[in-house]
Amino acid sequence: xxxxxxxxxxxxxxxxxxxxxxxxxxxxxxxxxxxxxxxxxxxxxxxxxxxxxxxxxxxxxxxxxxxxxxxxxxxxxxxxxxxxxxxxxxxxxxxxxxxxxxxxxxxxxxxxxxxxxxxxxxxxxxxxxxxxxxxxxxxxxxxxxxxxxxxxxxxxxxxxxxxxxxxxxxxxxxxxxxxxxxxxxxxxxxxxxxxxxxxxxxxxxxxxxxxxxxxxxxxxxxxxxxxxxxxxxxxxxxxxxxxxxxxxxxxxxxxxxxxxxxxxxxxxxxxxxxxxxxxxx
Length: 281
Description:
Blueprint: E1 2-7, H1 15-29, E2 34-37, H2 45-49, H3 51-57, H4 69-77, H5 85-88, E3 91-94, E4 98-101, H6 109-114, H7 116-126, E5 132-136, H8 144-152, E6 155-160, H9 164-171, E7 185-192, H10 200-206, E8 213-217, H11 220-228, H12 231-238, H13 248-264, H14 269-272
Parallel strand pairs: 1-5, 1-6, 2-4, 2-5, 6-7, 7-8
Antiparallel strand pairs: 3-4
Helix pairs in contact: 1-12, 1-13, 4-7, 7-8
């Protein structure tokens, strides 16, 4: 089906937390195989947000040659990547639905960049097993490995906030890597404050844009869940909230984002929803 890269022109836009929320919602509500990963050297913030779930359901992975991307890079160099190799080196978050492929613990930034071609090949191989791949790609234009992942993505989700300077950098294209030009994109506002005068509709009007946008509102309870490693539990608790609950706007927008992104990569969200009639696959 498809690979989605989440990217921003600069750091501090809440990319990782937005990826995590959307991935967890998809894992909770859709009967598809989804992989979420943070292919950035020396970064593990995505994994920390799911740490309580990983501790409960983690597979017994060997550590002599590293785990996650470290192990897969070693296997890729040996030509040993098979259909389920990525799954076998990933961490289970939601059985049969959501896995997390941890980033490198052993490669420094230079080593990671030098392995960029192998890492892109790993995610390409993952497509033969997973229906949906969500990648938290390094922000900015300084990483050749990140730019290669943007080039290989079926859809790039550009994560923005309501900071005027960052908005200017994106909309005047001064912060764009070459790989973003001509690429299918969607805009997502992370940590969104709907009471700000910098509403999505006002931002688009200012820059002469008309496309639909996604939002992940700021939510204190969700931020606490990220820090506590309880993202999966928070999403599970929030899924059935009624409209009067303080957290309802957050979960409603995350659900809307998940639905739209799945549709964009060709997933029939009605057929694949966990509550769909039995017998659908």
